[in-house]
Records
---
Amino acid sequence: MKCPFCAHLDSKVVDSRDSETGEAIRRRRECLNCGKRFSTYERVEAVPLFVVKKDGRREEFDRRKLLHGLLVSTTKREIGPAQLEALVDDLENQLRGRGGTEIPSREIGEMVMEKLRLIDEIAYIRFASVYRSFKDASEMRTVIEQVLSQPPGTRRQAPEPSRRGRRPREDSELPLDLGK
Ligand SMILES: [Zn+2]
């Protein structure tokens, strides 16, 4: 198992337990080279789920792709990869619990956004901006206003000002310039 920090191939297992839903075994590993810790998951290979796209194409549900999208949306937010893994686990269990093997992409997107919103509003807006591909800033502002109109207590913190120039490269795909 390759270390995600230094790519070294040897690690030792420091902890092992069932995930909360009991559908995976989580192993905490420590890299023998750099000493950093990371998690691996062992799960039963399940019947594939298919995502039905807007144009009718079907694509196998891909946890990693979804996780990647979530990681991009949560860049510089205080959300750990474990939290995102849990979100995806939760989503997958929900999808599998429905019984069918085909789910419209739109439904999945909305389910993800609903969960993400409970964790982090900024990440939610970023994800929504990509997922819904807002046509312009006003459409995005509507979503932001919805977030801001939530009763106090359901909000964690105010949106931060955009930090141009210091953003990671991937962020450039996320249209957060709201001043125009
Ligand atoms: Zn390492």
---
Amino acid sequence: MSLNESNAQYILSTSRIISLLMNVAIVGSGAMGNGIAHVFGQHGFKVAIFDVSSDALNKAMATISKNLDRQISKGLISEEVKTLTLSNITIYTVLKDAVKKADLVIEAATENENIKFDLFRNLDEYCPKQAILASNTSSISITKIGAVTKRPGQVIGMHFMNPVPVMKLVEVIRGYATTDEVTKSVMELSVQLGKVPVEVNDYPGFVANRILMPMINEAIYSLYEGVAGVEQIDTVMKLGMAHPMGPLQLADFIGLDVCLSILRVLHDGFGNPKYAPCPLLINMVEAGNYGIKSGCGFYSYSEGIKELNVSERLKQHG
Ligand SMILES: NC(=O)c1ccc[n+]([C@@H]2O[C@H](COP(=O)([O-])OP(=O)(O)OC[C@H]3O[C@@H](n4cnc5c(N)ncnc54)[C@H](O)[C@@H]3O)[C@@H](O)[C@H]2O)c1
């Protein structure tokens, strides 16, 4: 039995709505979009992936292929699964064509309210009436996104973690209007992808970033106030709290611009000064030090990302 046949059988034996979720469209093919396409393709779904940039789409397919090779070398999947996964994914440069048959769309485009609102207005127009529209946003309100459509009950957050093929969690975010039926379908679907879904309500930062970002911000305050240096702060949290990565290294990995914008969402959303971003974080972002993606953040990545060297500018802190 092919993966597609067994997938269809499994789906038919679960719930009516899940049985409709066969065609999946991913909007945005960056770090998250390619990982989400990979996971769905590997689990037998037909995946259409759309991006405004054809370069990004080509890069995404190359990344998926490379990541499947890594899974093969670790003995996690066979060559056959790789071939099947790649054959399940088709790239599109026209949104309407990518989503016209979709039962589920997962939007993973750039984190910007206007981009997402425009996309959801278009998705509402182009997608079949019964389609569920999900967003992988880290911080934008699902309720607000739902409100730009005529189907807010079918709009939901599916917050995958990076790297998607490896990380188990899907934070499933119910907007104010999201229905029980849609939430149940998305929870069941996430399990079917081998993930562990956790249902949360739509408040700023949801759960993951509401807890993670203040921790990162506090680590930056500790550096800013001279409590300890970069390596010392990260070592305390790695060895003392069994975190696999220190908070400053993690901030570099996520992107300091992304951390700042999520902290601003928390600060504006709750109006509580405890979420105010540390002035050092603001300065670093204004100076273009975004972490790994710009080559410099709390650490310098001129020697590659495996070599952890505290950035010259921050050696004096602590
Ligand atoms: N990177 C992470 O660790 C992470 C984790 C969880 C959630 N997220 C969320 O996932 C989403 C994507 O983040 P990313 O890190 O993959 O970003 P990214 O910058 O790697 O990729 C974004 C992609 O969106 C494309 N894009 C921009 N406008 C578009 C449009 N109108 N239509 C289609 N594609 C468009 C860009 O060309 C780019 O390829 C964001 O909402 C982000 O908050 C990111």
